[in-house]
Structure formats: C-alpha cells, structure tokens
Amino acid sequence: MASAASSLFGAWGSSSKREEDVRTQAERLGARLPPLMIHAERVAATVAQGEHGRRRVGQGDAFWQFRRFRQEDTSMAIDWRQSAKSQHLFVREREWAAAASIWIWRDASASMQYKSHVATCTKAERATILALAFASLLVRGGERVGDLNDPRPPASGRPGLNRFALQMTSQSAAKQSLPPLMPLPRFSQIILISDWLTPIDGVMSILRHYGALGVRGHLIQVLDPAEEDLPFDGRTEFEDMETQSRFLARRAETMRDAYRDRLSALRTEVAQACRRQDWTFASHRTDRPPQGALLAAYAALSAHRPFEMR
Prior knowledge:
The protein is α/β, with parallel strands linked by helices and 310 residues long. It has helices at 16-31, 80-83, 123-140, 157-170, 200-212, 225-229, 256-276, 290-303; strands spanning 3-4, 47-48, 51-57, 63-68, 90-98, 101-106, 144-147, 189-194, 216-223, 236-239, 246-249, 280-285.
C-alpha cells in the first residue's frame, strides 16, 4: 500500500542533536508513567530465585550445549570428558540466566520517513520515541531490554538503556520493512513497531516464527493521519517510498471510501491473526500525543488482551 508523498522528511538519525532530543523526549514520557511490568507465562521449572533461563550461551550455572572447540577458546574451556568420546575437542557452554527479557524493534524503512502537513512528526520519529519510552519503562521495572537488530544480549539498568538508545538512534535507514526472524529464547517477549502496510503474508510469517519459539509479541501500528483519512482532492500523485513507483489519481476523493475499507480490512486481518496467537495489536496516529499510546499499552499488557490505542 503506497504512502502519499505530499511531504517527505529527511533521513532519520542524521544529526546528533536530533538523537539527543529524541532520547530526552522519550525519557520525559517514560518518567510520567508507572513502571511497565511484563506479565509473561513462566514455567516453574525455569524459575530460580527470580531468574529465568535465557536459552542463550553466557554466564550461568545451567548446562546449555556442547560445541566444537574454536581457535579463540582457551584450553581451560575444553570439556575433556565429552572430547574423549570422539576425535574432536568440545567446549561446554552454560546458559545465561537473567530477568525476564524484552526485545524491541521499530521499522526504519523508507516508508516510515513519511510526514504529511497535519502530522507532528514522521512515522520513524514517533516509532523511535515509542521504542525508547517502552525501554525506559521496562528498565525501571527491572527488565532486560534489547534491540532485535542487535546481536548482543539484552541489558538492564541505566547502562542497558543508554546502549539501547544509542543503537536505536544510530541505525541508518533499513531496506526491509519487516523485523528479522531471530532465534529468541522461550518465554521472552518482543515489541514490534511499524506501519504494517505490508502484505498479510509477511505478518503471518513473523507470527509463525516467533509463535513456534514460545515468544509473546506486541505489534504496534504507527500511521500518519493522511494514511488513515486520505484527505486529498483532485489530481494527486502518490509515491511508494519503498519502491519509488508512482500512481496518478485524477480525482483522489473518489478513491477515499475504497481506500479506507481496504485499510480497515488489513488492520482487522492483522489484529485477528495476533489475537489467535495471544499477541496484542495496537494502532496509533502521529497527530496524537504518544502519552496516550503508552498508557493504553500499559493497560493492555497488564490485562493480556489485544488493545487499540489512538
């Protein structure tokens, strides 16, 4: 679905001043809300003094897996008992134990740079603000937060939040408008922020992948008001900012009803797919205050139900 090209904002993250302003605004938003605690199902066998197995290699006591010895490993890391069973050297890896973890991803593709004259910011700016505000709330609640595009494990506390903010604001524009399919640990959660104006097959592949891993997800749709209302009249040229393809409408107002029906159907289909997998789905407009979105998300995550935030 193409985005109207009546206005185009410059590349996101090109200025350190802008990055600082975004982080400051996100901190200010997070400070106004109570800590956002994640209510994920926990299996009793994985609970140990309030910590949960990360199902990822790292510091911990639980055995994770054996792997082949690598050149950078020390001789102290070799498990000689396992190595004696074959002709190869093996290293015993332990599972990293940590508090509940949340990965956050926001769409940084070209279509997210759109901003109409009635919006207060680009979709990318609002998505980044929401991502950082979520991270701020989660960290204050004692959770570990990570960027889904960052291979490093999630971190907690102020250092973790600063690392997340730097990673989030320093990312260049992405070519893909869908999140990566990562091998996340079971019982973790992900928050995915995008305009979700993509074919439903792409969304379904995300749900299938992370659902099979036992990961709970929260999809947040960020739209420009012009993308919802299609307020254009007369001769209007539309441009798909992902592919640069163009479409000329001689009377844009005649398309309005059909366009709104199509957008509503797509949103309903995504919401229903999320509901079937016990995920949540939200919709937010960039001409509305982000505080409302965060408050609605807090209530929905606490209640474990799909939500609508405007």
